[in-house]
Fold this protein.
Amino acid sequence: MHYSILHILNTTKTRIQAFGPDVRKEGPQPQFQKRDFIAAVAAARAEGRVPVIAEVKPASPGKSFREIKPALAAELAWEMEEAGAVAISVLTEPGVFHGSLENLKEVRKTVCLPVLRKDFIIDKVQLEEEGSDLVLLIAGILGKELGEFVELAIEKGFEPLVEVHSMEELEFALETKARIIGINNRNFETLEIDLATTEKLAPLIREFDLDHGTSHIIISESGMNSSVDVRRVMQAGADAVLIGSALMESDSIFEKTKEFVQSFCWR
Ligand SMILES: O=P(O)(O)OC[C@@H](O)[C@@H](O)c1c[nH]c2ccccc12
């Protein structure tokens, strides 16, 4: 695994041990009505929009985009929503990605869209932290514990998005109750991007669904910069895309989100 990911896992562990989950500091959070991501994807598709999960991402390993405090996070998310995004992803990992739970809460308060918590969930105690509709669970990090984390997330009212990068991880993911599978085009070992990852794995999910009478939502994640990239992964069978860097690097979050939203025609 890339050194920066190992670093994140270590610091996340230390942080949980030192402080506990946010919920312990703040007391129980008010229960809120969850927003239905699967319905939002269906609605976008019916309207001819590409379901784009737009990500509020202050930094990534070795790269800093901009400092994002809660007020700016909310402003960016609002632009993404106005431009037709189907959901907002908010980085909450504070070390390498410079994210925060405060950003997540402010975004959730501002927009009407479902919100995904983008973090490295390695301890069940993190699922006590409220604030999002969906939660990311990374198959390559959770390994054999993935199924348990998926069930606990569902029990806590989250929609789990299980992220995979290889056939082995996909097999694990398909054994769980997760309805949403994210195919990460970025390799965590090398941080290299290859959109062919979606072309390789998406058909396997479709095949599994046909054989088992199930239906998964497939999200292609990472490394898309243009409408050409989006068309490529949609043609490979993705139902939705997750985009961060290209939005953060653009001059207009609104225009760039719109470009992705309009980049593929369903008919
Ligand atoms: O910035 P990109 O290349 O558009 O990628 C977005 C998203 O897929 C990426 O941020 C991501 C995918 N899986 C993760 C897990 C943790 C943190 C971040 C991520």
